[in-house]
């Protein structure tokens, strides 16, 4: 009736490699899966008055700009010790928005091979030439930069994540800064999984290392530790002005409504104060690291802990076994990650107890 048979082939291919995806409802298992690291969403900490408007009625360039969104952008810029910030509807939009318009045809983008899909999609929309470097491999990055230097026609952008979404590992930010200075390149860093978690006030990896003045742009998302929705690009006033003029995922979409922005404001009041929650997360990380498991765990100092099982089928089976014990742990399968790197992504939260974590780990032992 819908004339949709042409969709079947690729879906069958997905089933054949055991990577068919279905939407799963949360059935009340203990959460070791969500990105709500600090429990802000779980504990409903962002209640605000219901007098805020629920629709913005237009793009930021038309009816969708209003006093509160500008006020919150100023608060965020101040918190992140930068000149300006620009709110996007999501982290996906922010990455698309900056990468599609800032690097020009004569420019080059060098990005970490394991960068998030929103980074890759943004790069795909750009006219600049793009090259990946091996994951977190600064020698490979430098080799690339040396090659580019020889035939340089424009600007060079280095793009990566401060905490990688699928393995929790941090990027070597000090070396990235050194290389960006040596080769006069611009750093664009996605802090989606660092914000709220790294730094005494959850300010993210770059500010924590006092390197914020060395980074051209930071992408900060609100949908993870901050417990709400949307994202922001922080950088110079000139960058903001450029994005307002050229960034299509900002221009051609309805802006976030007042209600969503007031929630973001509330999160910026709350998450810096959650020091005890960040401390508890570190206790959980220590417990996990001290447990001897018959699997390789990636060296992550963050809430995301990747246990490499290998193979879609084996990884799925292990996830089911853990879920049957009452813990919500999800398998991350090929093609989301490389073959043989299929993994369980165990996400730790401030609301998980040490005992719950130990029980979960027992299933793996
Ligand atoms: C590293 C990274 N960047 C960007 C995004 C996209 O953010 P959002 O969920 O706000 O679209 C995600 C989330 O999946 C992510 O993990």
Task: Count up the helices.
Answer: 13
Spatial order of the strands in the main sheet? Answer: 2-8-7-6-5-3-4
| Backbone CA Rg | 21 Å
- The arrangement of helices and strands along the chain is HEHEHEHEHEHEHEEHHHHEEHEEEH
Bound molecules: pyridoxal-5'-phosphate
Q: Can you lay out the helices and strands and say which pair or pack?
A:
Blueprint: H1 8-16, E1 30-31, H2 67-79, E2 84-88, H3 91-99, E3 108-112, H4 117-125, E4 129-133, H5 138-150, E5 156-161, H6 173-182, E6 185-190, H7 205-208, E7 217-221, E8 231-235, H8 237-246, H9 248-251, H10 258-270, H11 275-290, E9 296-297, E10 304-308, H12 312-324, E11 327-328, E12 330-332, E13 343-347, H13 354-364
Helix pairs in contact: 2-10, 3-4, 11-13
Bound molecules: pyridoxal-5'-phosphate.
Description of the molecule:
37% of the residues lie in helices and 15% in strands. With 365 residues, it is α/β, with parallel strands linked by helices. The strands form three sheets. It has a seven-stranded mixed beta sheet with strand order 2-8-7-6-5-3-4, sandwiched between helices. Strands 9-10-13-12 form a four-stranded antiparallel beta sheet. α3 (91-99) runs parallel beside α4 (117-125) and α11 packs parallel to α13 (354-364). The protein is globular. The chain binds pyridoxal-5'-phosphate. Pyridoxal-5'-phosphate binds at residues 90-92, 95, 116, 118, 161, 165, 190, 192, 221, 223, 231.
């Amino acid at each position: 009736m819908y004339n949709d048979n042409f969709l079947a082939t690729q879906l069958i291919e997905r089933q054949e490699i055991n990577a068919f995806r279905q939407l799963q409802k949360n059935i009340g298992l203990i959460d070791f899966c969500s990105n709500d690291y600090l429990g802000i969403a779980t504990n409903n900490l962002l209640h605000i008055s219901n007098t805020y408007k629920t629709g913005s009625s237009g793009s930021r360039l038309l009816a969708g700009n209003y006093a509160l969104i500008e006020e919150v952008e100023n608060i965020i810029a101040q918190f992140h010790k930068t000149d300006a910030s620009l709110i996007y509807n999501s982290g996906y939009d922010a990455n698309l928005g900056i990468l599609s318009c800032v690097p020009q045809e004569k420019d080059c983008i060098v990005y970490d091979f394991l960068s998030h899909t929103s980074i890759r999609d943004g790069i795909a929309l750009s006219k600049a030439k793009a090259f990946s470097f091996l994951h977190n491999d600064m020698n490979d990055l430098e080799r690339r930069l040396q090659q580019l230097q020889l035939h340089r026609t424009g600007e060079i952008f280095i793009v990566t994540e401060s905490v990688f979404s699928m393995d929790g590992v941090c990027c070597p930010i000090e070396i990235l800064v050194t290389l960006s200075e040596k080769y006069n390149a611009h750093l664009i860093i996605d802090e989606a999984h660092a914000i709220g978690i790294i730094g005494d006030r959850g300010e993210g990896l770059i500010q924590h290392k006092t390197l914020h003045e060395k980074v051209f742009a930071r992408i900060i998302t609100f949908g993870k530790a901050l417990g709400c929705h949307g994202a922001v690009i922080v950088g110079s006033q000139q960058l903001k002005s450029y994005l307002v003029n050229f960034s299509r995922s900002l221009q051609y979409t309805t802006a976030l409504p007042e209600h969503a922005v007031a929630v973001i404001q509330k999160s910026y009041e709350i998450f810096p104060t959650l020091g005890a929650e960040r401390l508890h997360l570190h206790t959980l990380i220590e417990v996990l690291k001290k447990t001897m498991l018959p699997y390789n765990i990636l060296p992550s100092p963050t809430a995301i802990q990747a246990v490499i099982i290998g193979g879609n089928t084996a990884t799925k089976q292990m996830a089911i076994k853990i879920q049957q014990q009452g813990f919500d742990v999800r398998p991350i399968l090929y093609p989301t990650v490389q073959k043989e790197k299929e993994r369980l992504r165990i996400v730790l939260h401030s609301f998980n107890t040490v005992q719950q974590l130990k029980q979960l780990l027992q299933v793996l032992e």
